[in-house]
Amino acid sequence: FNIDNTYLVNPDGTYNYIKSEREDRKGYDYFQPEKRDINALSVNMNLGDVDAYLSHSWADGKTPEGLDEKWARLEEWRALFKEENDGKEPIVWLDKACLDQKNIDESLAYLPCFLSGCKKLVIIPGDSYTGRLWCIMELFTFLLASGSEDVNKDVLIYPMTPANDPVGKLRAMSRLIDKFQNFDGTLATCWRDSERDLLKSII
Q1: What pLDDT, in 10s, does the model give residues 11-25?
Q2: Which of 89, 95, 134, 136 is most buried by its number of CB atoms within 10 A?
Q3: Per the omega criterion (within 30 degrees of 0), is the bond before 91 cis?
Q4: What is the pTM of this model?
């Protein structure tokens, strides 16, 4: 991912890869939807060839420190993936690059397809993650659509914390578990009220 060789998935049921020649401010632009359109940089790949679906809340990481934490956790997972796969760069699905930003509603209807085509779910949660209905739907849908038989192996969680802070990571994970255990879908929100109402009607 540094971002010289990053792979991403496309919204038409095929998948994409993206290549950039510089780090792009440590990837900040990839987590700020207003910054730039990276959807046009993606190219097609076959369904099922994607290593991970990246799940995160846009409400997290709005400060420079938060962006550092989110990007650092992504790099942490990427390094481990490369170590376990003989240096291979991960193929990933990231919403900003892989959804048609001009036709979000239609693209989101294919969410189960995108999730089922990914081998793992990589979650980078901040404080708002469990309060965002789309994030919870991604987790729920992945567990159903992927047919995962080993949640501990297929769902990887990297809480947003400062780098090199093992105590902070443990505390963040503890807070996350507590939030999941006390999750109340009636209190979860979306960016738009119309999306929240639609999802709740489906649930």
Answers
A1: 444 444 433 333 344
A2: 95
A3: no
A4: 0.79
